[in-house]
């Protein structure tokens, strides 16, 4: 069967890979759509330290069940539309013992620490298969990336009436925007890409800030009466936005980091204490986050198409990552459609 392979630095190609069959407790999925994410782009550019090449990318997966192995529960049937929870959990580390399996110390995400889903057929444990009814096939591959933003909203304990600032209007940031809006929060989005800010407003953001065109601190003060935001969610992963997250949070506010920096970050740490901030990391997502996103996408209907920038057929999938690399500012989600 065919798969997209990141073969070496900045080189991708379609490759023939061995077929696999489901064993006991496993499900064979016919993959229909795969979204590419920032970790795939970093792998392509040689910036992902968790990946060894060559690697089949892809952990944002939508497809249909083709076959179930022995012992798979009856609610999983051939023909069902599904998405995949792409993370593993050891069940033994401190995170797993606390029930926070999304942060497993030994997690191996599809497309990162192990080959991913950008191939014609994929075998996964049945526990990772999530049936989804009543949704367009192409939207199934939007569930995982949006769920990462939804998880950050849960980590930040966002509630109705909160003022929330989302730093970064990429796909993960959009997930945080949608998740916060569903909680009843007032959302502001900061980004330097005008197209992404426009989309954020279309999705319901009350305010947007373009730091390339205005003084971001002055605008935050104007919008919050000088208080700052109840919750700031960082979804960029550069030193400037890491520091801004702390600066723009109100006293007794919450800061949630989804992005992570490749370089050191310098803070005025007295702000942590003076504001008595809750500062949290956010990693991956849970089944509950996936279900919340499924409900959101059902409610959005055709509007979810606005989240997909470009779709490549499998035969041209080797062009997808180079295209994204050349059009970063205007690209929200690249998707590959399989026959």
What is the compact description of this entry?
The protein is 27% helix and 25% strand. With 339 residues, the protein is of the alpha/beta class. Helix 4 links the parallel strand 8 and strand 9.
Radius of gyration: 20 Å
State mean pLDDT (0 to 100 scale). 97
Largest sheet: 7 strands, mixed
> Low-confidence runs (pLDDT<50, min 5 residues)?
none
Helix-residue proportion: 25-40%
Shape: globular
The end-to-end span amounts to 12 Å
- What's the β-strand tally? 15
- Per DSSP, the total helix count is 10
Could you name the key traits of this structure?
single chain; 339 residues; alpha/beta; seven-stranded mixed beta sheet; six-stranded parallel beta sheet; 10 helices
Structure commentary:
With 339 residues, this protein is of the alpha/beta class. It is 27% helix and 25% strand. The protein is built from ten helices and 15 strands. The chain has helices at residues 38-44, 94-97, 143-155, 171-182, 194-203, 216-224, 239-248, 270-274, 287-300, 320-326; strands at residues 2-8, 11-16, 26-36, 60-68, 81-84, 121-125, 129-131, 163-167, 186-190, 207-209, 229-234, 249-257, 278-281, 310-313, 334-337. The strands form three sheets. Strands 3, 4, 5, 6, 7, 14 and 15 form a seven-stranded mixed sheet that branches. Strands 10-9-8-11-12-13 form a six-stranded parallel sheet, with helices on both faces. Strand 14, helix 10 (320-326) and strand 15 (334-337) form a beta-alpha-beta unit. Helix 3 (143-155) crosses helix 4 (171-182) and helix 3 (143-155) packs across helix 9 (287-300). The radius of gyration is 20 Å and the shape is globular.
């Amino acid at each position: 069967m065919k798969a997209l392979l990141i073969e070496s630095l900045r080189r991708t190609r379609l490759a023939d890979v061995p077929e696999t069959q489901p064993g006991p407790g496993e499900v064979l999925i016919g993959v229909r759509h795969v979204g590419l994410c920032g970790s795939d782009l970093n792998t392509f550019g040689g910036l992902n330290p968790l990946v060894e090449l060559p690697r089949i990318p892809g952990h944002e997966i939508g497809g249909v069940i083709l076959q179930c192995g022995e012992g798979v529960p009856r609610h999983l049937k051939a023909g069902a539309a599904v998405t995949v929870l792409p993370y593993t959990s050891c069940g033994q580390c401190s995170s797993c013992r606390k029930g926070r399996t999304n942060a497993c110390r030994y997690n191996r995400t599809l497309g990162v620490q192990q080959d991913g889903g950008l191939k014609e057929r994929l075998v996964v444990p049945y526990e990772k298969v999530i049936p989804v009814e009543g949704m367009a096939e192409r939207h199934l591959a939007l569930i995982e990336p949006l769920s990462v933003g939804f998880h950050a909203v849960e980590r930040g304990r966002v509630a109705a009436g909160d003022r929330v600032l989302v730093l970064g209007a990429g796909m993960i940031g959009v997930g945080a925007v949608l998740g916060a809006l569903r909680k009843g929060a007032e959302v502001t989005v900061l980004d330097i890409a005008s197209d992404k800010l426009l989309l954020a407003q279309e999705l319901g953001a009350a305010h947007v800030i373009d730091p390339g065109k205005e003084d971001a601190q002055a605008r935050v003060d104007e919008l919050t009466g000088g208080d700052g935001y109840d919750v700031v969610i960082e979804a960029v992963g550069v030193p400037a936005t890491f520091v801004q997250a702390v600066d723009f949070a109100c006293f007794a506010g919450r800061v949630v980091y989804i992005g992570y920096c490749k370089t050191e970050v310098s803070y005025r740490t007295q702000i942590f204490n003076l504001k008595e901030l809750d500062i949290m990391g956010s990693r991956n997502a849970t089944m509950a986050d996936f279900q919340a996103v499924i409900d959101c996408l059902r409610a959005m209907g055709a509007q979810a198409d606005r989240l997909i920038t470009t779709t490549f057929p499998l035969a041209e999938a080797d062009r997808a990552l180079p295209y994204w690399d050349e059009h970063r500012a205007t690209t929200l989600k690249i998707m590959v459609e399989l026959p």
